[in-house]
Amino acid sequence: MVKIAIAGGSGQVAQEVIDALMATKKHEITILSRKGSARDMTSGIHFSAVNYNDKSDLAEALQGVHTVLSFIQLLSDTGNQSQKNLIDACISAGVKRFAPSEYSSSEVTDMPFYAGKEVIRDYLKKVNENRKVLEYTLFQPGLFLDYLGFPYKTSKHIAPLSTFIDFQHCRAIVIEDHDFFMTFTAAHDLATVVARAVDYEGEWPVIGGIRGNRVPVSKILEIGEKVRGRPFAIEKVKLEDLEAGVLKTSWTLQASHASVDEEQATNMLTTVLIAMLLSSAKGAWDVSNEFNELVPNYEFVQIDDFLAKTWEGKP
Question: Signal peptide span per the entry (predicted)?
Answer without folding.
Answer: none
